[in-house]
Amino acid sequence: MMMSRLLSCLLLAGLLSGCTTMNQPPLRTVAHVDLDRYLGDWWVIANIPYYLENGKVATLDRYARRADGRLDNTFLFRRGSFTAPEESWQGVAWIHNPATNAEWRVQFVWPVRLTYLIIDLDPGYRWAVVGHPSRNYIWILARDHALPDAVYQGILQRAAQQGYNPARIAKVPQPAD
After folding, report:
1. Rounded to two decimals, what is the model's pTM?
2. Looking at the domain assignment, is residue 176 inside a domain?
């Protein structure tokens, strides 16, 4: 079991370290993130599906300050059904670019660290978009379980302008409010 986890982590680290897109410019982050407004609960409205999140529903990211200056990153989810028991993964995040607070590093399993770029953000902090330099990962987050379709379509258009393929982005099942 431990060897399997280690091999999975090493494979993931290898994949993530080689996931830069040579033909595209770097992702543009938002100019500034007010951390006090950003912290809290964010429902995962959509993402590019990948094996760690496949089959998960009612997914939510929770960010909270820690005494050491880093951030707790708790990922809450249910497997396959809204009635399944809630589970969680505990991670840690830290600000990589304090000039903007829009570039983080997130770690759920040592030594794997994921680049977390806030590439789109509602002025009222009602929704956010987190990207990865490879463009193989994206998370559309919201304070509510759903976004109005016009808002969601606008997010997809702006993600496409940054080099994402909107056809790869899928909604995550969320409970009704």
Report:
1. 0.87
2. no
